[in-house]
Design goal:
Elements: E1 6-14, H1 19-36, E2 40-48, E3 51-61, H2 64-71, H3 74-83, E4 87-96
Antiparallel strand pairs: 1-3, 1-4, 2-3
Length: about 100
């Protein structure tokens, strides 16, 4: 397996009434990405005990084109449609792995 060359971080701030729904949905999204996308190497979901509405995703992909493919999958579209109304803010960063 080739070393991934693209890392993605996504930070979410979730509306208080949707934190548990988001947690369930994002854990399913991580599982689907790892199981269905051979180009997705890592998909970690992180939280902070003192900021329960904040989530950090750390994902690695073969390359930037693979991340584009990830965003075109049916399971991403389903996840994104479900969680968008629950999100107060979202930031995405795409990085090259040295």
């Amino acid at each position: 397996m080739a070393k991934p060359t693209c890392a993605v971080h996504v930070t979410f701030n979730i509306k208080p009434e949707h934190v548990e729904d988001f947690r369930t949905a994002v854990m399913e999204q991580a599982k689907n990405s790892l199981e269905r996308e051979e180009w997705c190497h890592q998909f970690d979901v992180c939280t902070m005990p003192d900021r329960p509405r904040s989530f950090l995703l750390y994902e690695t992909y073969d390359d930037r084109a693979a991340f584009v493919k990830h965003r075109e999958t049916e399971h991403f579209a389903t996840f994104n449609a479900a969680v968008t109304p629950w999100v107060e803010s979202k930031e995405v960063g795409v990085w090259d792995i040295c």
